[in-house]
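Annual report, structural modelling task.

Input specification for the zinc ion complex:
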Amino acid sequence: MSLHPSTLALHELLAGATTSVQTTANAENHSQPRPGGSVDLERIQNAVREILAAVGENPEREGLLETPARVARMYAEVFAGLHLDPAVHLQKTFTQKHDEMVLVKEIAFSSCCEHHLLPFTGQAHIAYLPDGKVVGLSKLARVVEVIARRPQVQERMTEDLADLIMRELNPRGVGVILEASHSCMTIRGVRKPGAMTITSALRGLFRSNPTTRSELMSLVFGASRS
Ligand SMILES: [Zn+2]
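The model returned the following structure:
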């Protein structure tokens, strides 16, 4: 896919080829759910107290007393997807003759960058070309929700979504586009608020057929960027 250079975020340029290699290598491990796993809240609390002490704070002062417990509950929520299997949301399908593109645009998500444990937030656009089998539209949003709630890199999240839908629905093609703003880029490091990182993962006809691909791009970005 060729995006206009101005839509490429600095983050992507800096990330370079190494990131995409790691992304591919790790994709399989991370798409495996860890059912039955749980979050050790007390362990997080102890760690947060340590961080506070290490940065020169007093974890015993009034304003910080409840912070470790709060942060522990926050991580349990933000990383809840580690213990869930997104595939369960794609099990119930309907037989449908519709063979044109199904696109759900602007699915809001927030995830947590695994390099800094800072949030990245944005929108997912998910398209597929059914092969006689469709899934409830809200299920695509559910899948985004589960996969986002893990320590992530946007590149892998994009690939995991595409591979999961391809595997579970067996469509003729899948196109996933994610646009996100990374707070590890806006509040630290290069401090570039407003930079958007755009990633895409195309499978089947979205990859092999330029017409299908450009139809998706113009539906998502508007005709001028197709
Ligand atoms: Zn980061």
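The two ends are 9 Å apart (CA to CA).
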